[in-house]
Structures are given as structure tokens and as C-alpha cells.
Automatic annotation (TrEMBL):
Job of this protein: Essential component of the PAM complex, a complex required for the translocation of transit peptide-containing proteins from the inner membrane into the mitochondrial matrix in an ATP-dependent manner. Seems to control the nucleotide-dependent binding of mitochondrial HSP70 to substrate proteins. Stimulates ATPase activity of mt-HSP70. May also serve to modulate the interconversion of oligomeric (inactive) and monomeric (active) forms of mt-HSP70.
Organism of this sequence: Vicugna pacos
A GO molecular-function descriptor: unfolded protein binding
Residues spanning the membrane: none
Subunit structure and binding partners: Probable component of the PAM complex at least composed of a mitochondrial HSP70 protein, GRPEL1 or GRPEL2, TIMM44, TIMM16/PAM16 and TIMM14/DNAJC19.
PANTHER family: GRPE PROTEIN, GRPE PROTEIN HOMOLOG 2, MITOCHONDRIAL
Record protein name field: GrpE protein homolog
SUPFAM superfamilies documented for this protein: Coiled-coil domain of nucleotide exchange factor GrpE, Head domain of nucleotide exchange factor GrpE
Amino acid sequence: MAARLLWAVRRRMQPLLASSAASDGRGWLHPFSTATQRTAGEDCNSEDPPDELGPSLAERALKLKAVKLEKEVQDLTVRYQRAVADGENIRRRTQRCVEDAKIFGIQSFCKDLVEVADILEKTTECISEETEPGDQKLILEKIFRGLSLLEAKLKSVFAKHGLEKMTPIGDKYDPHEHELICHVPAGVGVQPGTVALVRQDGYKLHGRTIRLAQVEVAVESQRRL
């Protein structure tokens, strides 16, 4: 900016250059001499603000920003570590719950089965203690009553836990529920392709087949396969 000012002043002072030659003989200082330019430059430089002020403010701003970013990084690191620790704790608790469910998932069912075992044990003790060796009829009656009570209790336990016995006689053969043992000739009132006889009962747990029923299926042919 000082150079531009000097250039403008020099351009305006060009008409006076001729008259300034006489003034040089008397020892006057030429307005565009080296000393004059140096003095003008020094005066202009003295009015400009120091160049060191700008970089100093920029460095301070960068340092403050760096400190702020470092604090944010530390905060995010702590949050991440806490999240990882919480996730690991949740995973461990979930795994423990799954293992407990595998081990103790049938706890309620087993508790009900213990009552069935109690009935069977009491029936056996009653028969062996209160019955005379020669009284076979009384022994059979007690055995029958005990077994009937045992069967009723088992059915109650099964129904409580969603265990259902299938009754497929007369139903159409279904390989997802029935295990074919053999074919039998279709009799009166028995449709071919339906279950005519059950060898072993099948069971469902909450609607899902857990044991196939072993069945004999009726066919039109008179020949057993």
C-alpha cells in the first residue's frame, strides 16, 4: 500500500521535476531521493499494525479448538467403553438365563410328576402292609384303585402342561402324525386310507407332535402288506 501511495505522489509531482533541478544546487533534499523514500517507508511501516498479532490469534484459536476436540474424544471414548461393558454384561446375563432355562425349564412339570410318584408309592405301601397274603381279590381292588388314581393324576398333569394324547382312529393317515406299521383290510364303516388301529399312542405338546402314533391303516385290498 505504501508503494502505491509513493507511485501516485510521484505521478502528481512530475510537472515539478524541472523546477526541482535548481533546488538541488542549493542543497535541498530531492523529494524522491533514497533518504526521502526510506523515511516515507519507515513512516508507513510505523503506522501498519504488527504482522505477529494475526498468527498469534490464529494459533490460540487452533489450540482452543484442539483442546475442545480432545475433550470430546475422551468423552466419546468413555461412553464407548461403558457401552461395550454394558453389552458384555447383558450378553452374560442372557447366556446365564438361557442355560438356566435349559436346566430348569421342566421344573414345574417335574414337580407335578413327583405327585404322581407319591401316589404310586403310597399305593404300593398300602397293598404290602394292609393286605393278607391270601386275599388276592382285595389286593387287585387296591391295585386297580391306585392305578385309576394314578392315571387321572397323569392326565391332569399332561393337560396342565399342554401335553395331549392323540386319538387318530378314523382319521386320515398323516405321515406327520402317524407312523405306519402295516395295512389292514377295510372293514364295515372303515374308509380306506384311514387309521383302523393304534398300536402305540402319539402325543402333542402345545400342538406340536413330539411322538408319532404307531397305526395300522385300512386299505381296500384284502391282503396284508
